[in-house]
Write a structure and sequence with these properties.
Strand content: under 5%
Low-confidence stretches: 6-23
CATH architecture of one domain: Orthogonal Bundle
Helix content: 40-55%
Radius of gyration: 13 Å
Number of strands: 0
CATH topology of one domain: Cytochrome Bc1 Complex, Chain D, domain 2
Number of helices: 4
């Protein structure tokens, strides 16, 4: 199943890219794991509208251990690079709505 995940993430990037229309309203797989802690009024700050590159860099730093964490490092390791980019792109686009 792990081998299929990059393909799904790639399809999510295609589906949620510019001009995707109604598909843009649905988050990519994995994004729901972020919303518990990163929404309006949440303790960890919201992700909506943050720059995509900032979100990707944070996930990479957590995944690689460069940014210490108690929970995010484990969550970030659950996403490969393509999944991280798809999630970051979706959250970044939410600020422009």
């Amino acid at each position: 199943m792990r081998a299929a995940r990059p393909a799904l993430a790639f399809l999510a990037v295609l589906a949620f890219g510019p001009g995707a229309g109604a598909a843009e309203t649905r988050p990519p797989p994995g994004a729901s794991s972020c919303t518990g802690c990163h929404t309006e009024g949440a303790a960890m700050g919201r992700l909506e509208g943050r720059p995509e590159a900032e979100i990707v860099a944070a996930l990479d730093a957590f995944r690689g251990g460069a940014r210490p964490a108690t929970l995010m490092n484990r969550i970030a390791k659950g996403f490969d690079e393509a999944e991280s980019r798809a999630i970051a792109a979706w959250f970044a686009a939410q600020g422009s709505r």
